[in-house]
Write a structure and sequence with these properties.
Helices cover 49% and strands 23% of the residues. By secondary structure, the protein is an alpha+beta fold. The protein folds into 2 domains: 69 residues, Orthogonal Bundle (Arc Repressor Mutant, subunit A), CATH 1.10.10.10; 87 residues, Beta Polymerase, domain 2 (2-Layer Sandwich), CATH 3.30.460. The strands form 2 sheets. A 4-stranded mixed sheet has the order 5-4-3-6. Strands 1-2 form a two-stranded antiparallel sheet. The longest helix is centred in the middle third of the chain and has 25 residues.
Length: 177
């Protein structure tokens, strides 16, 4: 299993806060909004935001008595965003490695993803829903990344593709030959 280097080096709370800004790069947040949306207490949010401002990863703007925070634009921020996004994609790799162990799973397609999670389509001959749910629960517990899935038989998948319900351009994460 691949080691998640960033989670080992960076505080989970810092990752949650920077991930919030990555999700909404053009939005300005108050400190209380950041605290509420990230689920981190106010004092820790305040310290973390100050650290990110000092590192020029977050920009603080003061208008009157109100301070707002927004993701900074720049090379350092872009690099961090790429690293964190790559880090999250690796969670999908971990998911696929575990799902490969289920012999009835034929294909895993990425439906959509964001900083906090992903939606996947699992195609197979009645793969074990309970086992896939357990894999998703473990990943959510360990990685704070939620994976929602729908299971389809190969026939259901082909029928849905025929009707255009599932576009043909979905990214294949795993397929069994």
């Amino acid at each position: 299993m691949e080691i998640n280097v960033l989670s080992g080096l960076l505080d989970d709370k810092l990752i949650k806060i920077i991930s919030l800004f990555m999700k909404y790069p053009d939005k300005r947040f108050s400190m209380s909004e950041v605290s509420k949306l990230s689920g981190i207490n106010g004092a820790t949010t305040f310290r973390t935001l100050n650290k990110l401002v000092t590192e020029n990863l977050i920009r603080a703007t003061v208008i009157g008595k109100t301070r707002s925070y927004q993701l900074s634009q720049g090379e350092r921020t872009s690099l961090l965003v790429r690293l964190l996004k790559k880090d999250k994609v690796n969670v999908l790799d971990i998911f696929c490695e575990k799902v490969k162990e289920l012999p009835r799973v034929k294909t895993v397609l990425l439906d959509s993803n964001n900083v906090d999670g992903a939606k996947v389509i699992i195609v197979g001959d009645y793969p074990s829903k309970d086992r896939v749910e357990k894999i998703c629960e473990d990943i959510q517990s360990d990685r704070k990344f939620k994976i929602d899935f729908v299971e389809l038989t190969p026939k259901q998948y082909l029928d849905l593709r025929k009707f255009g319900t599932i576009p043909s351009g979905k990214r294949i994460l795993f397929t069994r030959a």
